[in-house]
Amino acid sequence: MENLNKLIDQLNLNKNITLEDIPNIDLYMDQVIQLFENKYASSLRNSDDKVLTKTMINNYAKGKLFVPIKNKKYSKEHLILISLIYQLKGALSINDIKATLDGVNKHILSEEVELDQFYESYLHLNEKNVEEFKENVPLHASNVIEEIKSLKEVDHEYFEKVLLITSFVHMSNLYRRLAEKLVDEIINED
């Protein structure tokens, strides 16, 4: 269990781009990439992975995942949306992300939304989710330890890890599938 706590610490779960991290001036693409690299590089699984690339941003723009840019500069609203896309892409398809954020983009264009307040709510929920996650991991671990006792003459340490992996992936899939159902509702409402 102590090992799980070390692994959780290595996840850098509280790394998020906050409103304070976003400058009050528009940024060029290279500056956007640097901001994201500075914030999220430590949370990458492999050192040769990229947090964000020009190609990714261009694909998000072509796919209309965020409002059009002006003069090759990205506003605070763009950075908030790119941050949301960055978080969502781990579980949802680009089409699902587009469907999810389409209404947000429409509200931005019609100036009907305080995007800062919405993003603060998102960050606040992230903090709560991290705390809940940290509380639930030991529960999963104790369930696995209880199950592993029934296995005879096996490498308990190895099979404990395998059962933990399958349990975590299963929970992840359950949440992803529910998120997809909510995306479907958004699509059907349009």
Automatic annotation (TrEMBL):
Pfam family name, one:
DUF1836
| Xref: InterPro entries | DUF1836 (IPR014975)
Q: This protein is called what?
A: DUF1836 domain-containing protein
Q: Which organism is it from?
A: Cytobacillus spartinae
